[in-house]
Amino acid sequence: MIRKHFAGFAASALALAVSAQAFAGTVTTDGADIMIKTKGGLEVATTDKQFSFKVGGRLQADYSQFDGFYTVNGDSADAAYFRRAFIEIGGVAFTDWKYQFNYDLSHNAGSSEDGYWDEASIQYGGFNPVNIKVGRFDPDFGLEKATSSKWVTALERNAAYDMIDWANGHQNGLGLQVNGTAGPSLYGSVGIHAKDQNDVDGDSVKQFNARGVFAPMHEAGNVLHFGVNFAQRDLDDVGGLDTRIRSRLGMRGVSTAGGNDAGTNGNRLTIAGANNLPAGSYGEDTAWGLEAAWAMGPLSVQGEYIKRELEADSSAYQDIDSKGYYAQVAYTITGEARDYKLGRFDAIKPSNKQIGAWEVFYRYDYIEGDHDVVGITPTSTVEGKVHNLGLNWYANDNVRVSGAYVKAKVDNAQNADGDDDGDGVVFRAQYVF
């Protein structure tokens, strides 16, 4: 029976590809009917919703130009690169099992040793509304991180996330997460991840994450959202430790994969920490976060506050404390509201397919940390401040074109030429399917 279903799917998919038609249809079989959709990727599903299979992806091509603090010598540099080039395969098996495999052809996710996976996970939903997820996926921490990279408002997520790349960013290893809802307004998740980084005994670093969301208003154009986040890991006996907290300050082109970047002339801000530290230098690493958002019609406002504490295990080192936040306001000129699903924002879908949807936004990022030097008490607080002003054009449900002006200012730090501020522009053409 299953063979007949998939044989029918293969023949139908091939016929659709050859004829280049973009219609949804139903294929009758001796079992459950198969429904094929070609709008926004290729999706095949049984009408009883027991099985589905979808092939999709996203392509983000970026170009940026920047100067001042963003380069070592202060001169202008540029970068042209694929920010993301994902192939995505996902679906449902036997109603309760979901799977998702996202592979990054631009090599900005994962690594050469473990594969360039953005996600490779299986989720069981038979205990509805509770789900159990296992595999490689990003830990749950923060509103902007929960929102897909396809639909975050600015081209890059806020600079405060650079402080906690371990808490919600791409890292190899495997994780187990339990998530679910309690009514239409409450969402929560807890997870544990075993990362590739090992201690001197070969024991992997374990990380715990928890997130809770309360959204008494949770419809597109009518959102009130509050969230709290927590993450912790233990770095005892980890050798070759990198405690540096570095930020690109909103300009990915200073250092990235997927194409050309600024190379050795690209400059990042270091607000604290050092690299290649011996085992026993640091122990418990903890991050907290608060998030809030409000939306009414085409207007949305959101922000997050994050604090991180890294405790020294040796008198030769100092505790590392850092904090950061961002505040963002966005307005859709053409009147569309940003979609919202419990715990995250989603796409803006243009109501007028001729002119698309046009959105303007402004975001202010702030980060700070004690600039600790091995064996020396910190004497200064390094700060980074970033202004992001941009425009998004959602030409249709698949194409988005974006541009932004980024202005950075740092305190108690500078590049080799003495610059403590920098300017840049970045443009992106995105296609999702």
TrEMBL record:
Residues 1-24 form the signal peptide. Keywords: Signal. This is Porin. It comes from Stutzerimonas zhaodongensis.
